[in-house]
Amino acid sequence: MAPLVAFLLSLNLLELIHGASGVTIISSDKDVEVNEFDKATLPCEYVLERGTQARLEWKRIAGEHISFVYFGEQIVEKYRERATMLGHSIELQRVTRADTATYRCEVTAKQDVKIFAEISFKLVVLVPPATPTCKVPSSAMSGSTVELVCKESEGSPPSVYTWYKDNVVLMDVSAKASTANNVSYTLNRSAGTLRFNPVRKSNSGTYYCEAHNKVGRSERCSLKFMQINDLDVTAIVIAVVTITLVLLLCGLGLCYACRRGYLGKSRSAKSNAATRTNTPPAGEDFKHTKSFVI
Ligand SMILES: *[C@@H]1O[C@H](CO)[C@@H](O)[C@H](O)[C@H]1NC(C)=O
Ligand SMILES: *[C@@H]1O[C@H](CO)[C@@H](O)[C@H](O)[C@H]1NC(C)=O
Asked: In this predicted structure, what is the pLDDT of residue 14?
């Protein structure tokens, strides 16, 4: 145990004597935001403690997917056209929205005490939002839950959404305030949803939404009217109308059949069939059934 502690202490001592602790990156790790088709500079300047040799790698990380940008002392094929090394930093020309990702600079200095250092940048290529599409039901029953959805997929950074009812912006309301002010909606501005739970007749109106991010604001989606009906009235009206229609149709059908004489014909057809099969008289049939039952 003692020799190990002594060894570790001496390592620390060495670090102190040398003033710093191995390879050190001196660039700051601010996130980088650039407009589409501009150039982006990802800085990675470092100092080594000993030696002069260090291995430098640049990686691109998008979700689970990791690929190289700079590896084996050269820019990889895919980026050769538009990436240049400025010292250990990378300059990417003509960035597109597809370049939005995290980029990581990794430095390995075998001769240093601390042999590894890295720095990551989130590169966001700014794209204004497209005109969103809005999903608004044309009608619903009061008392039910209704969700309106606003969505666009170009904005970078991702858009936030604003809903309007009859040209008035719908404000965020906390759950507490919503009971106090008698409003029954919840907004999720990043998801673009406007949820009525429950929806009321007074929520009927014309709705539209807009998307915006730090780059710009979209056009509004096309206006949509939402009609909220009271459940009982509608149900009654529908029931009455349906019954009336059915009765009317039956009546008309009967009249038509009478006039054409279809009913008379079919009756005589039935009686013909009865005589042909020689059914026993009704009386006998009744007796037979009775005895069988007893
Ligand atoms: C809330 O509004 C609805 C209709 O808009 C009304 O029927 C109800 O009485 C109101 N409730 C309160 C607590 O004001
Ligand atoms: C809004 O929606 C997003 C994505 O659907 C979800 O992650 C987030 O938790 C929601 N926020 C609220 C306050 O419900």
From this structure: 47
